[in-house]
Fold:
Amino acid sequence: MFIPEHYKNTDTKEIHDFLKNNSFGILINTIEGKPWGTHIPLELSKNSVDKDILVGHIAKANLQSKNLVDGDEVLCIFNGPHSYISSSWYKEEEVPTWNYIAVHVYGTIKIQTSEELLQSLHELVDKYEQQSDHPISLNDMSQKTMRQVKGIIGFEIEINDIQAVNKLSQGREHDHQKIIHELDKQGAPEKAVADEMKKRMP
Structure:
């Protein structure tokens, strides 16, 4: 994706933390010359040789599943907080803009075995059930319920390239206090952008 140099994020730890905390992404490949995307959780992990991977699954009924082949390259897009930035918050006249955080991941597909898929499903459920008052486990599911697993395919995406952008009013540091103040007065998405700007203030 297009990233002006002053918006580029090359901090690997920060990017990995972002992927872990914003793991609901878009898996994109091409089917008969047309881009195709599916919104799914894509979990950052390591493979057997300690390489960074994303792990996910989709329904076999999804046309995309029939076009995921070992060795193919795919794109995964992850969005973080974003907000409109009014130029009325600036000291000097300028056009309005948008602040946002996003990560694009390019990688190579490897289709999971049924055993690998089941293991990844256990890890996915266990991760998100930690927040529940009454966490469930796939180990407690009946065989009838677990038969639904036959309707999906799992995959790993070995990461080849990561492109990360933090567009947070860089170059307008003299306006940051006002921008943050205005964002804090609004809803949760805007407050999240304000929080990201606060983290980066000297």
About this structure: The mean pLDDT is 96.
